[in-house]
Amino acid sequence: MIAITHFRDDSADFAERAETALAALAARPGYLRGSLGRSTDDTDAWVLLTEWENVGSYRRALGGYEVKLHATPLLASAIDLPGGFEVLRDVAPGGGVIASPSDRTPDPA
Q1: How is 73-107 classified by DSSP, letter by letter?
Q2: What are 5-53's pLDDT values in tens digits?
Q3: Domain count for the chain
Q4: Which contacts of 12-19 are long-range, i.e. CB under 8 A and separated by 24 or more positions?
Q5: CATH number of the domain bearing residue 84
């Protein structure tokens, strides 16, 4: 499961606050990886991307004390866009494709 959260923020400490939020999320069971990115075209536009074993681990992570303390205030300032996505195709370097079935709908292939 991928969680993508969009932000519009021009504060000097945004990256530091996002790093603290990522560290809190990273300590939770089911967390696989996370990244903070800033737009190359608009320096006020940011995304926080995290990957989780499944949607349940992501939802449980949001209830953790450290996440509520350090990540929830940041997440509350996010732009309201769909943020949770299931992974249907992974492509490894060199082009190897791994297809995963959808938990929600018939396979879009």
Answers
A1: HHHTTS--S--EE---EEE-TTS-EEE---SSSS-
A2: 999 999 999 999 999 999 999 999 999 999 999 999 999 999 999 999 9
A3: 1
A4: 14/46, 17/74, 18/46, 18/48, 18/74
A5: 3.30.70.100
Q: pTM of the full predicted structure?
A: 0.86
Residue 105 lies in a domain: no
| Residues facing residue 41 across a β-bridge | none
The model's pLDDT over 42-92, given as tens digits with 9 standing for 90+, comes to 999 999 999 999 999 999 999 999 999 999 999 999 999 999 998 889 898
Residues in contact with 58: Cβ distance below 8 Å, sequence separation at least 6, in sequence order:
1, 3, 30, 50, 52, 84
